[in-house]
Amino acid sequence: MAIAAFEGELKEEGRRKKEEGRRKKEEGRRKREERRRKKEEGRKKKEEGRKKKEERRGKKEEGRKKRGKNKMIRFAFFLFFYEFPIANGLAITNYQFLIPH
After folding, report:
1. Do residues 61 and 78 lie in contact, with contact meaning Cβ atoms separated by under 8 Å?
2. 100 near 83, Cβ under 8 Å?
3. Position 2 pLDDT exceeds 70
4. SS3 (DSSP) at 86
5. Whole-angstrom Cα distance, residue 39 to residue 85?
6. What are the CB-based long-range contacts (under 8 Å, 24+) for 24-33?
7. d(CA 35, CA 90)
8. In the predicted structure, residue 87 carries a pLDDT above the cut 90
9. pLDDT of residue 33
10. H helices present in the chain, as ranges
11. Residue 97: HSE in the Cβ half-sphere, 13 Å Cα cutoff
C-alpha cells in the first residue's frame, strides 16, 4: 500500500516537473519572440529614419541645384544687360553705353 502511494507521488512529481519544463520552454520561446519583435521594430524605425534623412538630403540637393541655376541665369542677364544696356529698356542718355566695354 505504501509502495503504491509512493509510486503515485513519484508519478505526480514527474508530471509536475514535465509541466514546469513545458511552461519554462514556452516562457523562453515567448521572451525570444518578444526580443526578436523589438529588434525588428528597431530596425524598421532606423530604416524609416534613414529614408527620411535621404529624402531631406535629396530636397537640399535640389535646392542647391536650383540656387546654382538661378545664380547662372541672373549672371547671364547681368552680363547681357551690362554689355547691351539698350535691351534693358533703359533710356540711353550717354553715347558710351552703346559701345560694348
Report:
1. no
2. yes
3. no
4. helix
5. 67
6. none
7. 75
8. no
9. 97
10. 2-83
11. 14
Q: Which of 65, 100, 98 is nearest to 79 (CA)?
A: 100
Q: In 3-state terms, what secondary structure has residue 1? A: coil
pLDDT in tens, 50-86: 999 998 888 888 888 887 788 888 888 777 766 665 5
Give pTM, 2 decimals.
0.44
Q: Is 29 exposed, middle or buried (0-12, 13-18, 19+ CB in 10 A)?
A: exposed
Q: What is the C-alpha to C-alpha distance for residues 66 and 64, in angstroms, rounded to an integer? A: 5
**CA pair distance 89, 79, nearest whole angstrom:** 15
